[in-house]
Amino acid sequence: MTITSDKSSATDTNFLGMPVSGDITQGSSRTEQKPLEELSPLFQALVNDPTIVEFGWSQYTPYFNDGDTCDFSVHYLWVRTTAEADGAVDEYGDEYSSHYGLDVDYHPSLGKIESDWDSEAHKFVNKRYEGPDEDRYNRCQELDRALQSGAYDNVLLEHFGDHALITVRKDVIEVEYYSHD
Fold this sequence. Notes:
With 181 residues, the chain is of the alpha+beta class. It has one domain. It has a four-stranded antiparallel beta sheet with strand order 6-5-10-11, with helices on one face.
């Protein structure tokens, strides 16, 4: 009688020259990492944009354990343009004093993508950009997707650390400790 398993049996495997035997259960694979050089043009496009004053993101490993592993990740990109700088106020009359309310998906001056829900197809349709500069909006979205993809986690963790709020200005990158729940 032959017993099959979803585990791979390690018969030819060795670790540091020592043979490994037994059943090895394959774990989940992390996102393939990319070098910093591939992130550079997306990053530089925002640094060189004359209407973008600063941008940033938070990155951290969650503290809690709800049964899932606590993995390091990057969280949403925020962008401050000249429209939100120096005393500008949001729709509630509050001054833009922090990065809150400036995430790139529904940004007050970069714009947003609107779409309609098709209840029969169970998906969003008729996506359309609303805002002043679709190319700028797309550049910001492209950097956001790259940062949150997990493909640059190793280089971001190495350069900025864990539990960090990163703020990028034209001439400096500031890293602050980021407290999160």
